[in-house]
Amino acid sequence: MSRPLHAIFFDIDDTLFSTSVFAEKARRNAVDAMIQHGLKASRSDCLRELEEVIQEFSSNYGQHFDRMLARLPEGSLDGLNPDVMVACGMMAYHDTKFRDLRVYEDVYEVLQGLSKTDKIRGIISAGLTKKQAEKILRLHIYDFLSPHAIFITEQLGISKPNPKLYAKVLGSLNLQADRVIYVGDNPVHDVDPCNALGMITVFNRRSGRHSRQKGSTEADYTIKDFYELRDILRSDFGVMI
Question: Is 200 within 8 Å of 220 (Cβ atoms)?
Fold first, then answer.
């Protein structure tokens, strides 16, 4: 007998697309653009300093390239205007975003199928509101989601892994925890707090940086792609997509 299901929510980064692979490519392109415009530093040195800045200030910090340039050896700019170099990097980064940001093919197919059902399809994502909202639009998945079911931590004022984040989402939509699936790539941030509330958890163990991480609890399901998620939805919840 199929289990009742009213809604399914997704994380964004390293769940719907490979954040790690995309970020690496975009940062490499940004550094290459600065070097092409006269920066006297090696790609490896720039990327090493950039990674250090990101680790220290977080990926949402707004002056990654400024801090990177300040850490390079004296003479790297050699009279160049640092703001022009930052602009080179930002343009190359955003050009990569415009060109290459897309969901995995299986993700697109399954979300498209879900959009034809009566299930609520939502997002619960950690990060800056406008940045995460832009990803939803650039990934071309907005039309597959329920517009009232998009939740971003900055907007709510509660961050992962606080279970209050997920509880607030359930309460705002009047959903029962045991009839809601959450799909995420981080056992600590996505699986443990949802398990604490009695939600149905799916660990998307694809290839992200958290794929080998362990939480304090086990997910109800572990998948490597969304075709496996589709099989689970069909066999256990009677959702035929």
Answer: yes
CATH topology classification for 7-17+102-237: Rossmann fold (3.40.50)
CB contact at 8 A, 9 and 182 = yes
87 burial (CB, 10 Å; 0-12 / 13-18 / 19+) is middle
Q: Give pLDDT tens digits for 97-128.
A: 888 889 999 999 999 999 999 999 999 999 99
Q: Which of 101, 102, 108 is closest to 227 using CA atoms?
A: 108
Q: Which CATH number applies to 20-100? A: 1.10.150.520
> Which residue type does 97 have?
K
- Report how far apart, in Å, the C-alpha atoms of 163 and of each of 70, 160, 223 are: 39, 7, 23
Which ranges in the chain are annotated with CATH 1.10.150.520? 20-100
pLDDT in tens, 161-176: 999 999 999 999 999 9
Q: For CATH 3.40.50.1000, list the domain ranges present in the chain.
A: 7-17+102-237
- How far apart, in whole angstroms, are the C-alpha atoms of residue 201 and residue 229? 11
